[in-house]
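Bit of a strange request maybe. I'm writing a small parser for structure token strings and I need a real example to test against, not something I typed by hand. Could someone generate the tokens for this chain?
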Amino acid sequence: MQRLALGLVLLLICGAVSAEQIKPATKAAIKTPTSTGAAKKVAKKPAAPKGPPAKMLFGAVATPAPLAARAIGSYAKGCLSGGVSLPINGPDWQVMRLSRNRNWGHPRLLDYLERLASDARGLDGWPGLLVGDMAQPRGGPMITGHTSHQIGLDADIWLTPMPDRVLTPQEREDITATSMLKDPFTVDPNIWTPLHTKLIKRAASYPQVARIFVHPAIKKVLCEQAGKNRAWLSKVRPWWNHYYHFHVRLTCPPGAEDCGNQKPAGSDDGCGKELAEWYKMLRKAELWRSAPPTPPTPPTPPKPGAKPAPKKPPMGLKDLPTECTAVLNSGGGAPVVAADGTVPAALKVEAGKDAGPPIPRLDPGAYAALKAEFAKKGKSKPGAKPQAEPASAAASVPTTAASTVGPASPGDPAVDNPSDDPISANDAAVPLPDRKPQ
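Reply from user aminoacidic:
Good idea to test on real output. This should exercise your parser:
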């Protein structure tokens, strides 16, 4: 009996010990998924490297994509396949800023430029075109100067007449285009001539033209000098900084499904409400831009624990249409990327000289008068950026047929109403055939 009692006691003791050992193991098993989840939250996968901005990649490629000619994407987000270079010298044109290597375009653009140069000289008496930036060999975003010009259908044409001799390569780098402005709001009558009006009217006459962008002051003088036939004015739209050149934009080639056109043309000539609104914006901007310099104020220290506002990253290759990756890499054309993420070939392009002079500022007297005009109406405080415009701001804008088109958005010159009307009934523009890649 003693042995039986002793055995029962030992059995109870061992059972209790075994139960105590199992309980912690059970708890640990329950906590395991929780601890694993926490580890996953802490150990995030590192973000894949984004690579250099798309403007660095496309800005570094010196040759076109050896593919069929295609304008891919939109004017401000796309690329160019099978680009063709405009010869730097032609019978009626010369290419400027050769170091930029931006005299490339879709064959449709080259046909247009050669036709415009010939017609402007032969029919209107313009001495010849000085052609500025078109597109890079494979289009895409540019390092300097432009948001658009990405698909080979945009071109800048200087308002400076071509000289009667062939310019040297160095002259094409050093010569500065002539500003057409007397002040920020007015075209200089000693520089602007009827030939300038004829040139822009001719440029807008062809049906493949979607837009022509000029400074608002140039739009104003075009409205005044347009004559009876005003249909072409609907294509000519105001835009910032186009005071020494005009920007031509063509429509997409017929049947180009990968190319994004702008919205169809309207009949408004843009000489009424739209131009008045642009002058309001110009005057507001000038009140701030021409203000006398003030001592810089020290930056406000950030609040403790505050995170800096995130900056918008530059456009990357993945932001462009998918086909643009193949365009960039075709024919072994992808640029060399250094270990620090820069593209050495692109950095050389960044050092190019601007084509035009700075926009003129108001003299102190004119600035004081403009400031007093705003202050009189209680629209602005001294030294503050203006918020509204006096009613007299548009007094100098020509009064023509009222416009129902508002001012273009400052974010992208991809809004407006072009028109396909010819320059006159007796001088109809003839569509040009698409050039075959050379």
